[in-house]
Amino acid sequence: MSINSKSSKNLNRLENILIIGNGGRENSLAWVIQKNELVKKVYLIPGNAGSERINKCERIKIDINNKIELVKKLDFLKIDLIVIGPEIHLANGLADFLRKKDFKVFGPGKDGAKLEYSKSWAKEFMKDANIPTANFWKVNSFEEAKQIIHSSSMPLVVKVDGLASGKGVFIPDSKDECFRAAESIFNGKFGKSGNVVVLEEKIQGPEVSIFALCDGKKYILLPTAQDHKRLNENDKGPNTGGMGAYSPAPLLTEDYLDRVIKEIIEPTIVELNRKNIDYKGVIYFGLMLTKSGPKVIEYNCRFGDPECQTIMPLMDQNFVLLLDKCSMGNLNGDEKIDTFDKVSGCVIATSKGYPNEYKIGFPIKIGEIDSCECQIFDSGTSLSKNGQLLTDGGRVLSIVCQDKDFDKVFEKAYRNLKEINFDGMYFRNDIGHQVRKTLSKEN
Ligand code: AMP
Ligand code: GLY
Fold first, then answer.
1. What does the buried/exposed string (b/e) look like for 366-378 if buried means 16 or more CB atoms within 10 Å of the residue's CB?
2. How far does the centroid of ligand 2 lie from the alpha carbon of residue 433, in Å?
3. Which of 34, 43, 123, 262 could be 56's S-S partner, Cβ–Cβ 3.0 to 4.6 Å?
4. Nearest residue (CA) to ligand 1, atom 15
5. What letter does residue 194 receive in the DSSP assignment?
6. What pLDDT, on a 0 to 100 scale, did the predictor assign at position 3?
7. CA-to-CA separations, 326 to 33, 278, 332, in angstroms, rounded
8. What's the average model confidence in pLDDT over 391-404?
9. Is-contact 311 147, C-beta < 8 A?
10. Is the pTM of this model over 0.85?
11. Residue 122 near ligand 1, beta carbon < 6 Å
């Protein structure tokens, strides 16, 4: 028996919103969602220490895997819309479960989340729809991988098929490294996620992130963004979840974006429909702009982090209405997003050691922060018993600023960063180097 009955729900109501997740991404979603006057309360499960600094926000302590208690609680709170942040819950079918209980949910079901949780499936999907992407081979054993690596003239990119917390992609410089990467995966380094491996031709070009809000049939695009995946300045060092971002990405001119829409975005929506996948959520297109045109590097079934923190301050109070329309399959597809003619940039402050081993629990001191067009979204923080803000993750804080141009944005972001301090704090000084005239260096 369904605990909820459809008749008990007022589909037009948007008083109580639930966001699932605990990062900077979810805090930025909460921050923009609460701006709408229809919204009375934004709950986060579990959120982090920064969540309750956001207007109307409250954290809920509940085990998300205890489905009976979860539904009871959401009914009690009269939740009108649920936004699911992290891919793991989407891959586990949480959106399907909650929809079955008659909740409105922004986030794809398990079938749509497969775009992210199986790289080989996503590659086959692109092949079926003739969507440009790097050539690839799906392999099921180290023996098979060896043969392909051996016969290739270039070192290949080696990818774990399943979810790997952003650590499952190897970009070797030599065939030897390729062998070692494939061997480590098939030896169980990533558990079941590594039962299948995707080998890919290495392609080159700047990367951009595009986000399409989808209602199952129609979609609208958010401003584009560019992430900075590498740990160190000049895009050196290991891959991370993202050290900073800016939006929009001027690399994607109107004409180029039209090409991306025609060659990649629309064919993706058409193929989802052809496969009977009712995708109600965001599709994150990770693209590489190569000499021969745009190619999909990866799909994700969620907002990017830190792209989300960067883009949300460009949204107005109607953003939640877009999520709601998507959840109900009611998007017109021609909704206009007003970004106030502003651009936005984000710098992530991380813990020393990230993306590898790092310590947590260091007190965070925050001085005078600009009150206008400057936000701090906590990415990984907690509170001590006496209310002191502490580091609680590899990525600790997202400092986000908006202004008329990127020079002003990053001047403001770095000026405000000087007001923040914790033991082992590390950040890149060159976020936005592609668009800062003072640091101009086209990638
Ligand atoms: P992914 O987790 O698939 O986004 O991959 C992480 C990063 O690896 C991407 O952002 C790219 O910088 C790089 N990468 C992935 N696939 C390729 C490829 N086929 N060729 C070159 N670089 C790649
Ligand atoms: N910023 C990259 C990601 O969210 O995967």
1. eeeeeeebbbbbb
2. 19
3. 34
4. 297
5. G
6. 47
7. 15, 11, 10
8. 98
9. no
10. yes
11. no
- Minimum-distance ligand 1 atom for the alpha carbon of 203: 20
**pLDDT, position 442:** 46
- The domain ranges of the chain are 12-113, 135-200, 204-328, 343-442
Residue with CA nearest ligand 1 atom 19: 202
Specify the DSSP element, H or E, that contains 313.
none
Q: Are 6 and 72 in contact (CB under 8 A)?
A: no
Averaged pLDDT for residues 130-152: 96
Percent of the chain whose pLDDT exceeds 90: 93
- Rounded to whole angstroms, how far apart are CA atoms 84 and 20? 5
| Superfamily name with CATH number, domain 343-442 | Phosphoribosylglycinamide synthetase, C-terminal domain (3.90.600.10)
Q: Indicate if ligand 1 lies below 6 Å from the C-beta of 297.
A: yes
- Say how many CA atoms lie within 13 Å of 140 toward its Cβ: 0
Distance (Å) from CA 304 to ligand 2 centroid? 4
Closest atom of ligand 2 relative to the 306 alpha carbon: 1
Nearest-CA residue for ligand 1 atom 4 is: 298
Which ligand is closest in space to the CA of residue 85?
A: 2
Distance 373 CA to ligand 1 centre (A): 32
Q: How far is the C-alpha of 245 from the C-alpha of 24, rounded, in Å?
A: 13
The ligand minimizing its distance to the Cα of 163 is: 1
CATH among 1.20.1250.20, 3.30.470.20, 1.10.260.40, 1.10.540.10 for 204-328: 3.30.470.20
Average confidence score pLDDT of the chain: 95
Q: Are 36 and 318 in contact (CB under 8 A)?
A: yes
Predicted pLDDT of residue 140: 96
> Each residue of 182-197: pLDDT tens digit?
999 999 999 999 999 9
Indicate if the pLDDT at residue 12 is higher than 90: no
Quick one: pLDDT band at residue 338, thresholds 50, 70, 90? Answer: confident
Phi, psi dihedral angles at 301 (to 5 degrees): -100, 20
The pLDDT assigned to 440 comes to 56
Average pLDDT over residues 290-301: 97
